[in-house]
Amino acid sequence: MRTLGVTMLVVGLAVAVGYCDKVYYRAADGSWASMEAAVAAGRLHIRIGPQAAPNGEAVLVINKPEWMVLDDTEAPALSGLKVNGQARPASTDTLQLGCFGGDTADVVIGVKDDKNPIEAASAGFRLSEAPEVTVEIDRSGLGPPQSSGRLVAKLVGLKAGQYQGTLSLSDMAPLSNSRSWPVSFTVMGISVSEDKQTVSLAGLGAGYVMATGKKEQQLLLPNGLWAKLTSNMGGGRYYYPREFTDVEITKDTEQEKTVLITANVVDLEDNPSDGLVKLEYELTVRSDTPAVLVTTRSINISDKDVGNSPNWGWLSCPYYFTPAGKQEWSSGEGKDRYSTIGKVGWLWLAPRSEGQPGLLWASADKFGEFMGGNILLYGSGRTTKPGEFVTMKLAFAPADSPGEAEKIYQDLLAKGLVTAVEEGE
């Protein structure tokens, strides 16, 4: 085995100033010391021995600025955070910028270090997977000699949805100390694609997407699952949206935004309904809840009476909670394919993988299991006359625990945004 060592090394360096007689070095125990160095013919001559180069490596500081503190091992911290003039929590591991509207945002970040200035050139605020958004950074409030300052980021070109990013800072210690923070925020609103086949919605801290193209993909939820409406019409044929024929934003205030989507349909074999049914999706997001409020109507557009039985699903999860607690799957191999959960008001669906949120699913309609791994919500099916429809009302929201799901549900109840289950049902 070869052992690295330093006996004595003489280094000649060009000196940027006319005179310099002190060089600082980091000793083996992490402390800093200094040595005298001679200057001759504009060059600084340094003699490095074992004390200045532990393990064969030397860390030297030449021409040390007056403001530099050598003994600094702490990364920068945040002293404040404002988004569009509103204060947000800054002493958190993840920076939650909140929910706001509009296509621009001003983020002002107060920064500080225990001993050294923040390095302006390396300070960054970046968004992930948002190429349409321009991030304009003002770093003029950073740098020596102060060890505190501010970083300003102006976000331009925002659209409705949920965003993730990173804030990164480094100080100007000899051995730079760095730290980064995950950043998340939501731009409240509704955006519609040019072909009107994709509608993105975002409320307080949660984003949703309504799309066509595949029967199993209708409403994309924050936990990565797709929920879908299935309408059993006219004796056993199940219908799904084929394309959105109309998309209209019917409410657009700072507190609440609603979109009404109309769709024509196909059956399981991609056959059209031949003038039997159309679907309406009314979706609402708000600034005071992470939930999306969903109302759907399966409409009989024929000239005859038609049986009409819609349901929502099919959402998978490893296990789920009701207000009564954790539930074991009751259906599966060797048992009935369908099993009733009942009218329980809300469920919490556990996440399928680490890093995903759980899901609140709320409705006054009846929940059920399918094959011990999927959840369904049944509408109140009946025979509909021409022009009549069956309505389903439900809500989804990300929730990290059953307790959080119940809290969101109770808030929705208190605000009259969901219907309570009647006693005895």
Radius of gyration: 31 Å
Q: Examine the coordinates and then state which fold CATH places here, giving the name of the CATH topology of the largest domain.
A: Beta-galactosidase, Chain A, domain 5
Structural class: mainly beta
Q: Tell me which CATH architecture of the largest domain applies here.
A: Distorted Sandwich
The backbone outline, from C-alpha atoms, is elongated
What proportion strand?
over 45%
Tally of helical segments: 1
Q: Which CATH class of the largest domain applies here? A: Mainly Beta
Average pLDDT across residues?
87
Number of domains: 3
CATH superfamily of the largest domain: alpha-galactosidase from lactobacil brevis
- Strand count: 34
From the N-terminal CA to the C-terminal CA, the straight-line distance is 79 Å
Q: What kind of sheet is the major sheet?
A: 19 strands, antiparallel
Give the helix proportion (percent range). under 10%
Low-confidence stretches: 1-18
